[in-house]
Amino acid sequence: MTVLVTGVAGFIGFHTAARLLARGDHVLGVDVVNDYYDPRLKEARLAKLAADHGDRFDFVRVDFAVAEALEAALAGRDFDRIVHLGAQAGVRYSIENPRAYVHSNIVGHVNLLELARNRGSLPMVYASSSSVYGGNKNLPFRVEDRVDHPLSLYAASKKADELMSETYAHLYRVPLTGLRFFTVYGPWGRPDMAMWLFADAILSGRPVPVFNHGKMRRDFTYIDDIVTGVVASLDNPPPDDGEEKAGGSFAPHRLYNIGNNRSEDLMRMIGLIEAELGKKAELNLLPMQPGDVPESSADISAISRDLGFAPTTPIDIGIPNFLRWYKEYHGL
User: What's the total number of domains in the chain?
Assistant: First the structure.
């Protein structure tokens, strides 16, 4: 099987491509490799995929949010399924640069939906986000919950992706699965995410910014568990059987939470980082930042029921794994 993977130079895209390649699939990767964070990390991920998997990995450098460029880049290339993980990420950045999210997350998503439709209704798995739950105070978050009050444009763009996907599943019967990821971390992670930022600050002797005065909880989900859910969704497209799916659709469209099924205290996470690095953090306690939420917690019963998903990596194992990679990557 040949799988088109967008955002292949990104954190989740890189790991998903590696898993598919390791099991014998071919991967056609797409990424624009922008400078939202250090492109050298993205190039290192691409280099590793090429070195480890040779000619079964093919890469196209293109902005999938530019329809004409995407169509030209993929002309004459065949693939069987799509994993659409490319997006403009980040809650805070969306407050400062809203147009980047409209371009990548909304226009880009429509382009991938059109690609799936025009290639014969190819099954597609796409990235949503736990941020769609916004100010929802009912915990854990369930895919059946209303998600009508996003707290950032990033969250709004992901909710828009889900709505547009429902339309394509209804009108064109494209089999679609949207995955609401919960606080993904692990080796080859993103420099703008908390664990990387905390490790960098602690090792550099700088204060660690801790929002909401440390009163935060997150459903930290290790990258290997995330990829297991992505691949299970790819291998099991929703049937077009008129039955109600996870998330409420009667079209071939499912929505799933992918989390660790266990919300952890932020201060416990910091403690594990301190223990692995052998150095105490200097904490800079700050108020809640705009667009953020104090707690996230995933109800994963739908994906567990349908696909047998069960996370296996607690933060006691995952955080040391990340930090060992972090030190190796930086030559520490």
Answer: 1
